[in-house]
Design brief:
The chain is of the alpha+beta class. The protein is built from seven helices and eleven strands. The mean pLDDT is 92.
C-alpha cells in the first residue's frame, strides 16, 4: 500500500514577556531541511541570548550542510549538530570570562516524510496534538521533575517550589551533553508545538490544547498562545514554534 506523502508548514513567535528586560529565547527552522528548534538561554551579561542564538544557528547550519552533502541518517546528523552547538557555546564561554557558565535548553523536531525525531535538553517542551488531544512528548530535565518521578514532590508542590527553575541538563555548560532522542511516526493532521517554559509556566495543558484546537492559522495560534501567557503573568520570555503535518 502506498504511503501518503506529507508536507510540513510552520510558524513561530518569540516575546520578551512582561517582566524580563531582555529576551534570551531563540528559535529557527527550515521546512526545506526538516529542522525546527527552540532554545531558552541562561547566564548573566546577555550570555543567555548568546547561548540560545549560537545553538539555533549551529544546529540549522550543520543540518542544512550535511543534508546538502550526503544522504546521511537524519538522527545522526542531528546528533552531530547538537555536539557542534555544545562545543560552540562551551568554547565561547571558556574564551570570555563574562560568559562563563552560559548555556541553553534545546528542543528540536527533525522530520523526513512520515518519520520524525524529537531532541530535548533541558525544560523546553514538545507537544503533539493528535485527534484533538495534546500529549507532552518530552520529559523535563529539571530538579523538580526528578523529585516528582521519585515520588518526593507533587505537581502542585513543584509548581510552587523555589527550585522549579533549576535544570539538570543544558547545552553548553559542560564539554559534552546527551540529548533525549524520541523517534515517532507522524500522521496527516498532527500539530507539534515546541515552546520555552515561559509558555508552560503560565498556561495549563488544557489551555494550550484549547488554543491548538482552534480554527486559526499557525501564525494566529502562536500569537494567541503568547497573548494568553502574557495575560496570565508573562513572568518569563515566551517562544512558540508550531509545525503542522498536512
Amino acid at each position: 500500500m502506498a504511503t501518503a506523502v506529507v508536507r510540513y508548514t510552520a510558524a513561530a513567535i518569540t516575546d520578551r514577556g512582561r517582566k524580563r528586560a531582555s529576551n534570551e529565547d531563540a528559535f529557527g527552522y527550515s521546512v526545506e531541511d526538516g529542522v525546527y528548534v527552540v532554545c531558552d538561554g541562561m547566564g548573566g551579561a546577555a550570555a543567555g541570548e548568546i547561548a540560545s542564538s549560537l545553538a539555533v544557528d549551529e544546529v540549522l547550519r550543520l543540518v542544512s550542510e550535511r543534508r546538502a552533502e550526503t544522504s546521511g541518517i537524519l538522527p545522526n546528523i542531528a546528533a552531530a549538530a547538537v555536539d557542534a552547538a555544545n562545543e560552540a557555546i562551551h568554547s565561547r564561554a571558556q574564551r570570555n570570562l563574562r560568559l562563563s557558565g552560559m548555556g541553553t535548553t534545546l528542543v528540536g523536531l527533525l522530520a523526513e516524510e512520515r518519520q520524525a525525531w524529537i531532541l530535548n535538553i533541558g525544560d523546553s517542551r514538545c507537544y503533539r496534538l493528535r485527534s484533538n488531544r495534546i500529549q507532552q512528548c518530552t520529559q523535563d530535565h529539571s530538579l523538580v521533575e526528578e523529585q516528582i518521578r521519585l515520588g518526593r514532590m507533587t505537581r502542585a508542590e513543584a509548581a510552587r517550589s523555589p527550585l522549579r527553575n533549576v535544570i539538570t541538563r543544558a547545552l553548553g555548560t559542560q564539554g559534552t551533553v546527551t540529548p533525549d532522542v524520541i523517534e515517532i511516526e507522524t500522521e496527516p493532521g498532527d500539530v507539534f508545538l515546541l515552546c520555552s517554559d515561559g509558555l508552560t509556566r503560565e498556561l495549563s495543558d488544557e489551555k494550550i490544547e484549547c488554543v491548538m484546537n482552534s480554527c486559526m492559522t499557525l501564525d494566529e495560534m502562536c500569537a494567541q498562545l503568547v497573548q494568553a501567557a502574557n495575560k496570565a503573568g508573562g513572568h518569563d520570555n515566551i517562544t512558540c514554534l508550531i509545525v503542522r503535518v498536512d
